[in-house]
Specification:
Elements lengths: L4 H6 L4 H11 L7 H12 L5 E7 L5 H10 L3 E6 L6 H15 L3 H26 L6 H9 L8 H16 L8 E6 L8 H7 L2 E6 H6 L8 H7 L6 H14 L4 E7 L7 H8 L4 E6 L7 H15 L1
Parallel strand pairs: 1-2, 3-4, 3-5, 5-6
Helix pairs in contact: 2-3, 5-11, 6-7, 6-8
């Protein structure tokens, strides 16, 4: 059963300690906390047999992390999203992964159909968030980000999702919130969503989390992964953000940047190309939103309200 190690790490009751354990093992301070958390999570787990490492299109630290895992006796399997979205190169990567696990296209298509059915219901939950104002920003974040591994239990995830949808459909719409977008990697301080709602703002667009739910469903699996914006250049992301900002009538955007992540550099381009107010918020270790960040969020929301 595939699992997104990021999800195990960030929901681990000792997630902050896992980061420290990686530093005690020798990881430099100026390495992203997600990488350190992933390392300690894998070291602690007894049932992870292989790690699929995205060597292109995700984190710039992945190559070195793969080498460390190899030194610890953990098997790693590389997967690279080709820069430029080349169809043939991406298909080759998919087929190499299929060969490694000894599966055929028929099996892949069967699973794609099952996963797409659940993804379509997550897309509906997203609509209930931004179109009908019936779902909180954190719930929107949670169910979309969980599409990376469906909590290791697709039927259980689908059943839980239907209960959330049913509850939302029966709830009155909530109006009066500022409508915010959240762009960038998922936050290492998830209480950001609830805090925003205490000061009159709600996230109605979670950019990368929405990508995890594969909003551009295509009949061809390779084409579907070509349309997935996260692992390629920033310009497709910007096009998607601009379209969704207009569609969802966003008042402002919070750009979350993880400390020591190369994606921080893209903040420059995002600010130049996106024509609505943006607050750039940086997070380091897993924790609650710190006082300085709260003050910056407060000021941003107050500015938008004027």
């Amino acid at each position: 059963m595939p699992v997104d190690i990021n999800n195990i790490f960030i929901t681990h009751p000792r997630c902050r300690e896992l980061v420290l354990e990686a530093e005690f093992a020798g990881f430099p301070r100026n390495v992203c906390s997600w990488i350190k958390g992933i390392y300690s999570t894998v070291m602690e787990a007894k049932d992870i047999q292989y790690v699929i490492a995205v060597t292109q299109g995700d984190c710039s630290f992945t190559h070195a992390l793969m080498e460390i895992f190899e030194c610890r006796g953990i098997k790693t399997i590389p997967f690279a999203y080709p820069y430029g979205r080349d169809y043939d190169m991406l298909k080759l990567q998919v087929e190499k992964l299929m060969e490694y696990f000894g599966t055929e296209w028929e099996t892949v298509w069967d699973w794609k159909e099952k996963l797409d059915a659940v993804r379509r219901r997550v897309h509906y939950l997203d609509e209930l968030t931004w179109r009908q104002n019936r779902v909180r920003g954190f719930i929107n974040h949670l169910y979309q980000v969980s599409c990376s591994d469906f909590n290791l239990d697709l039927p259980g995830f689908a059943q839980d999702l239907e209960q959330v949808i049913s509850k939302a459909e029966g709830s009155p719409p909530e109006h009066g919130f500022l409508r915010l977008g959240y762009i960038g990697v998922p936050p290492i301080c998830p209480d950001l969503y609830d805090y925003l709602e205490t000061i009159g703002a709600r996230v109605v667009f979670n950019e990368v989390q929405r990508q995890f739910s594969m909003p551009f469903v295509a009949a061809d699996l390779v084409e579907q992964y070509r349309q997935y914006t996260y692992p390629y250049d920033v310009f497709a992301r910007i096009k998607d953000i601009q379209e969704q900002a207009r569609l969802r009538r966003l008042d402002g955007i919070i750009h979350y940047a993880q400390t020591f992540c190369f994606r921080q550099m893209q903040d420059l381009i995002l600010r130049e190309r996106i024509d609505i107010p943006i607050l750039t918020l940086e997070g380091d270790k897993p924790d609650r939103l710190d006082a300085r960040s709260r003050m910056r969020v407060d000021s941003f929301v107050q500015m938008l309200k004027k």
